[in-house]
Amino acid sequence: LDEQDRDDLKNLKYKQLFIDDQISIYLGLIDLLYAFVYDQRITQGEPCCESSWNIHKLSSTLSWFDTFTDLPSVLIACCRRTLIYPLIRSFKLAKKCLLDVIEIFSMGKSTILQCLLQMRRLFLDEEHRYLLNTLYLN
């Protein structure tokens, strides 16, 4: 984690959460990371003015407040949304994004946390999407 990530973590308040269904939390995390990875691939790691829109539209969790019960439904939703909403629609790109998500999970918690913090910073600058931080990322 870099200095900006540490500062962001210091500014977040500690919340005690009571989670009933951990599986749906992890599946939602896959959905969020997939949308983030898609944007990273499209923008080559340099977020643009459309990055928050891309992430918001591609993630069923963020755009539709969807909760998942099994892994196939997450993967299908991610691929479907990739082929419907963004400017660049490619099944090959969708498969590469899925592989990227697997790689992020294999890198561990710190990499996942970095991705979520970058996503949070993108939403902070947007007019209405800052509310998604309150609901999902804070």
Characterize the structure shown.
With 138 residues, this protein is mainly α. It has one domain. Helix content is 72%, strand content 0%. It has 8 helices and no strands. The longest helix has 22 residues, at 22-43. This is Protein SHQ1 homolog. Belongs to the SHQ1 family. One of its GO terms (molecular function) is unfolded protein binding. Residues 3-138 form the Shq1 C-terminal domain. InterPro entries: Shq1, Shq1_C.
Strands, count: 0
Spans of at least 5 consecutive residues whose pLDDT stays below 50 are: none
Pattern of helices and strands: HHHHHHHH
Radius of gyration: 14 Å
Oligomer: single chain
Mean pLDDT: 86
Helix content: over 70%
How many separate domains make up the residues?
A: 1
* Sheet with the most strands, sense and barrel status: none
Figure out the total of helices. Answer: 8
Structural class: mainly alpha
The shape is globular
- Percentage of residues in DSSP E strands: under 5%
Note the gap between the termini.
17 Å
Which helices and strands occur, and which strands form pairs?
Layout lengths: L2 H9 L10 H22 L7 H8 L1 H5 L6 H14 L6 H17 L1 H16 L5 H8 L1
Q: Which terms summarize this structure?
A:
unfolded protein binding, mainly alpha, Protein SHQ1 homolog, Shq1, globular, single chain, Shq1_C, 138 residues, 8 helices
